[in-house]
Amino acid sequence: MAGSKTYYDIITWNVRGLGSPAKRQKVYAYLNRRKAQIVCLQETHLAKGEAIKLQRRWRGQIFATEASAFAKGALVWVRAGVPFEVLSSLIDKEGRWVLVGGRLDGREIMIGSVHAPNQGQIEFLNSLSAKIREIGAEKMVIGGDFNTILDVDLDRSSSPLRGAPVHRLAKGTSEWTESWGLVDVWRLQHGRVQEYSYYSAVQDIHVRLDL
């Protein structure tokens, strides 16, 4: 993301659990090598009080859910040294999202980490809209795993039948992102390249779920 003349390295990552000290160390080491300054993590699985343990080494500002069930948990980490002034924050009690509003280089921005459910994604996103409005920032960056795709032709290794539910879901998600002026940064950088982040053994397809 570009501020006035400053660029920040932002990473979003579904880590599939930070419960063990060894896993936390590996994730931290990777983020440190990449020199990530703003991080959005999903599926953190952090129980009550565990986010405090991260702050012993993960210097900076950490906003995290306390996961209520497996496959849940979201976290935003703004690394020490990043000039981010927090103005407000909202944390989902169900462990699905974290939204943090503040000023970065003097500009209002919202940073969000989102892990959508694998059913009812459109209803979930519509309810999330109300929370985004509460933050009310001029700009936003949302990292996450939305458990859906935006383009049925590019984001799947095989195209579904016309009229299949995946078409309606992709269309609804695309309309939601457009309504907020959000841009799929990966697609913006890579154009029409087909590259996948997840394999579904049930459907025997590769898909790109992350935004």
Main-sheet strand order equals 1-2-4-3
Helical segment count: 5
Order of helical and strand elements: EHEHEEEEEHEHHEE
Question: What is the CATH T-level topology of the largest domain?
Answer: Deoxyribonuclease I, Chain A
Extended strand count: 10
**Structurally, how many domains make up the residues?**
2
Largest sheet: 4 strands, mixed
User: Termini distance?
Assistant: 15 Å
CATH architecture of the largest domain: 4-Layer Sandwich
User: For the residues shown, what is the average pLDDT?
Assistant: 90
Percent helix, as a range, is 25-40%
Shape: globular
- Rg on CA atoms, Å: 17 Å
At the fourth level of CATH, the homologous superfamily of the largest domain is Endonuclease/exonuclease/phosphatase
Please identify the top-level CATH class of the largest domain: Alpha Beta
Percent of residues in beta strands: 25-35%
Assembly category: single chain
Low-confidence stretches: none
Q: Helix/strand-derived class? A: alpha+beta
Question: Can you describe this structure?
Answer:
It is a single chain. Strands 1-2-4-3 form a four-stranded mixed beta sheet, with no helix packed on it. Strands 5-6-7-8 form a four-stranded mixed beta sheet, with helices on one face. A two-stranded antiparallel ribbon has the order 9-10. A hairpin with a 4-residue loop joins strand 9 and strand 10. The chain has helices at residues 21-33, 50-54, 121-135, 165-179, 185-190; strands spanning 10-14, 38-42, 60-64, 74-79, 84-91, 97-104, 107-115, 139-145, 198-200, 205-207. The protein folds into two domains: 1-147, 4-Layer Sandwich (Deoxyribonuclease I, Chain A), CATH 3.60.10; 154-211, no CATH class. Helix 3 (121-135) packs parallel to helix 4. It is α+β, with helices and mostly antiparallel strands. The mean pLDDT is 90. Helix content is 26%, strand content 28%. It contains five helices and ten strands; from the N terminus they run βαβαβββββαβααββ.
